[in-house]
């Protein structure tokens, strides 16, 4: 049984506040749960949730992954930017050119994200979160395609992208050069299996594809931390 992408997790200095920001930007509802399990829920039950986990590790450099939000019109793009700024986001400069149509922002915890201009053809068949854009190799794109069984929808000049057969958000990797990894990633994937699935067999399958165990064992929530071929952390949740 293949793992499902259950959540995109943010390591956050203020999980509840960051959840309110992203809930307001995306229009997703806050999930009911204990104080240490802060999450927002997608409007489509087939999509992933976004979880916000407590962490006091300082942010070093740009994140290896960021959201690209889509727009239906120039006015819609402006409204998304304005809403993000009102909720505590800010404009940042990551080297974008003045003539580029997307707007680069950071959330209140400093995590970068982009609001893409209307008419972007690559993101036309997605949703509001058009892509999770990642800094990574072609190898890691192939790994995640096999791990999630999401088809490759782009594979050119070492750039890769995958998308669920049900549509929705794409996950992209920009190819070389890949910046050296410093510290624990702020954003990472959480995988989950159905209740009847063989968890150990799934972990072994992921290892056969190129993942490694971190050696830290399971946390209190039944999650095992692993690394993908680029050294990015991800977790695998035991069936409940």
Offer a concise description of the structure.
The chain is of the alpha+beta class and 240 residues long. The chain has helices at residues 15-26, 74-86, 138-148, 199-209, and strands at 4-12, 29-30, 38-41, 49-54, 65-69, 90-91, 103-106, 112-115, 129-134, 152-156, 159-163, 170-173, 187-192, 212-218, 223-227, 233-237. The protein starts with a strand and ends with a strand.
In words, what does this structure look like?
With 240 residues, the chain is an alpha+beta fold. Helices cover 20% and strands 33% of the residues. It is built from 4 helices and 16 strands. It has an 8-stranded mixed sheet. The chain has an 8-stranded mixed sheet with strand order 6-7-8-5-9-12-11-10, with helices on one face. The longest helix has 13 residues, at 74-86. It is globular. The chain starts with a strand and ends with a strand. It comes from Streptomyces brasiliensis. This is VOC domain-containing protein. InterPro entries: Glyas_Bleomycin-R_OHBP_Dase, Glyoxalase_6, VOC_core.
């Amino acid at each position: 049984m293949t793992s499902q992408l259950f959540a995109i997790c943010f390591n956050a200095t203020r999980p509840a506040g960051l959840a309110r920001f992203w809930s307001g930007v995306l229009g997703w509802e806050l999930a009911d749960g204990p104080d240490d399990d802060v999450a927002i829920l997608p409007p489509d039950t087939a999509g992933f949730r976004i979880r916000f986990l407590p962490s006091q590790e300082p942010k070093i450099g740009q994140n290896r992954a960021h959201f690209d939000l889509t727009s239906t019109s120039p006015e819609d793009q402006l409204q998304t930017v304005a809403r993000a700024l009102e909720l505590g986001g800010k404009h940042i400069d990551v080297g974008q050119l003045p003539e580029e149509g997307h707007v680069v922002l950071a959330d209140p915890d400093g995590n970068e994200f982009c609001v893409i201009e209307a008419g972007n053809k690559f993101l036309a068949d997605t949703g509001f979160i058009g892509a999770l854009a990642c800094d990574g190799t072609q190898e890691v794109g192939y790994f995640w395609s096999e791990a999630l069984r999401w088809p490759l929808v782009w594979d050119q000049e070492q750039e890769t992208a995958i998308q669920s057969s049900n549509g929705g958000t794409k996950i992209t990797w920009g190819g070389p050069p890949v910046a050296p990894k410093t510290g624990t990633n702020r954003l990472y994937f959480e995988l989950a299996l159905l209740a009847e699935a063989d968890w150990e067999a799934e972990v072994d399958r992921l290892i056969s594809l190129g993942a490694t165990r971190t050696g830290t064992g399971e946390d209190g929530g039944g999650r095992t931390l692993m690394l993908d071929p680029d050294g990015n952390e991800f977790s695998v949740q035991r069936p409940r």
